[in-house]
Amino acid sequence: MGAGLSLTQALHLLAEQEKGRPLGQAAEFLRESVTAGRNLSDAMQQMGQSFPPVAVALARAGEASGALEQVLQALTEQVEAEQDL
Question: Within 10 A of 36 (CB to CB), how many other CB atoms are there?
Fold first, then answer.
């Protein structure tokens, strides 16, 4: 999204890059849900265990405040740091 892509475009690219993998399937589900008019946080919540409640809550706060891009970037950095550990 930082490169000027819309949320749906970014999710589409992620789904294509990760095609056949769980992340790609999740990205495709989220893209379809957002395209259908749902909030990203609602779609994340619908996926159940795929996203922890704190990630859903942060996405919801980002949507409400207009800072979704920054929130998603922070979540990405957090997940990457946890994977490094």
Answer: 8
Q: What is the 3-state secondary structure (H, E, C) of 3-19?
A: CCCCHHHHHHHHHHHCC
42-48 long-range contacts, CB within 8 A, separation 24+: none
Q: Give the residue from 41, 37, 46 showing the smallest Cα distance to 65.
A: 41
- What DSSP line would sit under 58-85, residue for residue? HHHHHHHHT-HHHHHHHHHHHHHHHHH-
pTM for the whole structure: 0.83
pLDDT score at 2: 61
Short-list 83, 84, 61, 85, CA closest to 72? 61
